[in-house]
Amino acid sequence: MEAKSPSESRTILTDLVLPSETNPLNNLFGGELLARMDRAASIAARRHSRRIVVTASVNHVAFNKAIPLGSVVTVEAVVSRAFKSSMEIYIDVWVEDRESGRRSKANEAIYTFVAVDETGTPIQIPALEPESELEKQRYEAALRRKQLSLVLAGKMKPKEATELKALFED
Ligand SMILES: CCCCCCCCCCCCCCCC(=O)SCCNC(=O)CCNC(=O)[C@H](O)C(C)(C)COP(=O)(O)OP(=O)(O)OC[C@H]1O[C@@H](n2cnc3c(N)ncnc32)[C@H](O)[C@@H]1OP(=O)(O)O
């Protein structure tokens, strides 16, 4: 199976914040943003694997900035590392200033998707070859995040999480 580059999975969704999608402070609901991120991430995972994909885990979400009603929001998802059947998807959320058009980073998230066959059994996917410096950094750190996610899910013993342990031993 031929390795793929992150740009082959990059998925960009741009949409408005409508009144029905806001909280009492007139900012975008967290749940609405999670849904937009899940949608973009699933397309990125599908583009990388060309298989049926399912969300295995939401590893990290940070709501750093509230996103006001009427904002133009861009959700950018890309595969940051591919393992055997699972993929880490890194999501950056940008908000566009209505006056200047300048984009600022509002949130980010990290999801894990697994490629499966028609019976729901995990299936082998192509490797990922990072190219830019940022892609390489995210690729390197992805194994630690996978181990942390597996430990939290009770699917890996902490003592087996060697990459994760190394982080605390530096
Ligand atoms: C083409 C362009 C246009 C496309 C245009 C249309 C595209 C449009 C696409 C629509 C796509 C809709 C996308 C909906 C996405 C949902 O919303 S799916 C619904 C929510 N998710 C689910 O229902 C999943 C339910 N869970 C499961 O089915 C199983 O637990 C899983 C995820 C398949 C894993 O199964 P398992 O028996 O644990 O299998 P196991 O072999 O142990 O693990 C498999 C891999 O997952 C990893 N893993 C398992 N759990 C975790 C965890 N908690 N954390 C991290 N990794 C984990 C394992 O480490 C392993 O990784 P690899 O070493 O193989 O890489």
UniProtKB/TrEMBL annotation:
<dbReference type="Pfam" id="PF03061">
    <property type="entry name" value="4HBT"/>
</dbReference>
<dbReference type="GO" id="GO:0005737">
    <property type="term" value="C:cytoplasm"/>
</dbReference>
<keyword id="KW-0378">Hydrolase</keyword>
<protein>
    <submittedName>
        <fullName>Acyl-CoA thioesterase</fullName>
    </submittedName>
</protein>
<dbReference type="InterPro" id="IPR006683">
    <property type="entry name" value="Thioestr_dom"/>
</dbReference>
<feature type="domain" description="HotDog ACOT-type">
    <location>
        <begin position="7"/>
        <end position="119"/>
    </location>
</feature>
<dbReference type="GO" id="GO:0006637">
    <property type="term" value="P:acyl-CoA metabolic process"/>
</dbReference>
<dbReference type="GO" id="GO:0052816">
    <property type="term" value="F:long-chain fatty acyl-CoA hydrolase activity"/>
</dbReference>
<dbReference type="InterPro" id="IPR029069">
    <property type="entry name" value="HotDog_dom_sf"/>
</dbReference>
<dbReference type="InterPro" id="IPR040170">
    <property type="entry name" value="Cytosol_ACT"/>
</dbReference>
<comment type="similarity">
    <text>Belongs to the acyl coenzyme A hydrolase family.</text>
</comment>
<dbReference type="InterPro" id="IPR033120">
    <property type="entry name" value="HOTDOG_ACOT"/>
</dbReference>
